[in-house]
Design goal:
heterodimer; A: alpha+beta; DNA polymerase, domain 1; Dna Ligase, domain 1; 3 domains; 5-stranded mixed β-sheet; 4-stranded antiparallel β-sheet; about 20% strand; B: alpha+beta; 4-stranded mixed β-sheet; 2 helices; 4 strands
């Protein structure tokens, strides 16, 4: 393989070791690597509890993994259980990225998730050390000294190498640093046979590859890329590039998605069987999505409704849920959108118990002036429109729960309880 | 933040006690303890309620953070918390230092 024309940069992919659990350990004066701590969410819709993060020691001693359920965790007094504080983790993430900014220009830092960031060190690494490893070590020590957190660094000549170096090498390395280059990529990656461990290969893709007789990264690198493309489509080409450590992404050059859309969904705290309760939540979500869209001065020409059935409902007719989309006249009016959602729901729902509801708005356009409908009372239309905007303003100024429909107080409403959550979990105490 | 922040110790103690109240349910065979942690990275003092019950997992629930590293302020808060609860206080990561006012060892 001729790599001479591929981009040769230097990328760091840095992640925090057991981020939530580490933050909570430090807050309690415990060493993040030695403490046996798990962060457990007990939000309404997580059942009896869901493990959001486990410290390395908890993982090792008890085999607890993230997203374990409460009942899977042994009742052992050595395990320390703490509730999540999402706002605190967001603050810590900002603090970490602030440290990273001292090593790269703002435009070369790409936060990837709540605990991972990509740093394009191509231009700046020589300022901080003789080798990339030395620079990585320096950043690790700095984060450890200022925030107490342990970080893992993957180094590569392009982003995908950095990501694989992080996932496959650094996490098992004593210094928590891993490095891949074009030259040694095959040597380190090709022997891998557990394809699911490799970034971007999921359960189904791995199974598909197995069926094609591809059982290791080395096999993948030595198939005919045209045949792979024929079999798997564009993904085939991407996987082939992955197996050779090739990534031509220019991170600074973000392409906006062709068609943007707004959507919200939620898992309900229990199975909802009564139509009125389901419709109540549907209204709440409809209200929320429309309001988000209005904040971006847009209107939707298409609404979609997703309803996921509870397990026992699924047994009835073999369907896991329903998904329907319908075109409408472009509007940003919550009342109209909700009416459409309810209509869709009533048309297709056949009494199955529901556990999952989602609403999407697409075919967006800039909302300009109100387009009056010739056949309806114009004053009423103007009033409806103003009503939505006043509600938006009230919520912006006084918080999401400043005004709520009285119906949200009925049994089944989830809006009030959810308004205190961040990313679906407890945000932490106020005034902190 | 930035600049000088005035801390009302009475209010801080009140927040701790108010959050403690619904959590301290006084169960049998259960040990309750308030952990006070000096967090050198977060520049403050963290309060947690630690609950340990026989044959159960230990639980630690955040109560409050006093955003100051001034021991005098903490001493005031602690005095007021002590007036309203008899739970054991456990001081973590303070090292061997004395309270500025009472001159007793922090422990």
């Amino acid at each position: 393989m001729d790599y001479s024309r591929e981009p040769h940069g230097l990328y760091f992919m840095i992640d925090n070791k057991s981020f939530y659990a580490s933050v909570e350990s430090i807050e309690r004066g415990l060493n993040p690597l030695k403490s046996c701590l798990i962060v457990m969410s007990e939000a309404d819709n997580t059942g009896t509890g869901l493990v959001l993060a486990a410290s390395p020691t908890a993982k090792r001693l008890f085999g607890i993994s993230n997203v374990s359920r409460q009942y899977e965790v042994p009742r052992d007094p050595r395990i320390l259980v703490v509730p999540p504080r999402m706002n605190l983790y967001i603050q810590k993430n900002l603090a970490i990225n602030k440290i990273f900014r001292q090593y790269v220009a703002d435009s070369d830092l790409f936060p990837y998730s709540i605990d991972e960031s990509i740093l394009d060190m191509t231009k700046s690494w020589r300022l901080f050390g003789k080798t990339p490893e030395e620079v990585a070590r320096r950043i690790q020590l700095r984060v450890r000294r200022e925030l107490g957190l342990y970080t893992t660094v993957g180094i590569g000549e392009n982003p995908v190498q950095a990501k694989l170096a992080l996932d496959l090498q650094a996490k098992h390395d004593h210094d928590l640093i891993g490095r891949l280059t074009y030259e040694d990529f095959g040597e380190h990656i090709w022997p891998m046979t557990n394809l699911e461990k490799v970034w971007s290969i999921g359960h189904r893709t791995a199974a598909h590859l197995q069926r094609l007789g591809i059982h290791s990264m080395g096999d993948l690198a030595h198939v005919n890329p045209y045949e792979l493309r024929h079999e798997m489509g564009l993904i085939g080409t991407q996987l082939f590039a992955l197996s050779w450590g090739i990534d031509r992404t220019e991170l600074g050059n973000v392409r906006p998605p062709k068609e943007k859309s707004w959507s919200n969904s939620q898992v309900l705290p229990r199975d909802y069987k009564r139509q009125s309760e389901i419709e109540l939540v549907l209204r709440e979500i409809g209200q929320q999505v429309t309001s988000r869209m209005r904040h971006h001065h847009q209107q939707a020409g298409c609404v979609s409704l997703f309803v996921g059935f509870a397990w026992d409902g699924e047994a009835d007719d073999g369907r896991g849920g329903l998904h329907h989309t319908h075109r409408i006249d472009p509007t940003d009016n919550a009342h109209d959108i909700i009416a459409e959602l309810i209509r869709l729901f009533r048309q297709y729902w056949e009494g199955q118990p529901v556990r999952n509801i989602g609403v999407g708005l697409s075919r967006l356009s800039a909302s300009q002036n109100l387009q009056l409908d010739l056949f309806q009372n114009p004053e009423r239309q103007i009033k409806n429109n103003q009503f939505d905007r006043v509600i938006d303003e009230l919520r912006d100024r006084f918080g999401k729960t400043a005004v709520i429909p009285a119906s949200s107080l009925l049994r089944g409403g989830t809006m009030l309880r959810r308004s205190a959550l961040v990313g679906g979990h407890n945000g932490g105490n106020s005034f902190d | 933040m930035g600049g000088i922040v005035l801390i009302d110790t009475r209010k801080e103690a009140q927040i701790v006690v108010e959050r403690l109240d619904p959590l301290f349910t006084a169960q049998w065979h259960c040990r309750y303890r308030i952990d006070v942690v000096y967090n050198q990275f977060g520049h403050g003092f963290n309060f947690f309620l630690d609950i340990r019950r026989k044959n159960h997992r230990e639980r630690s629930i955040p109560l409050h953070t006093v955003r100051s590293t001034d021991l005098e302020i903490l001493e005031n808060v602690i005095d007021q918390v002590k007036q309203q609860t008899d739970l054991t206080l456990n001081f973590v990561d303070f090292g061997k230092v004395r309270w500025p006012r009472s001159q007793r060892w922090i422990r």
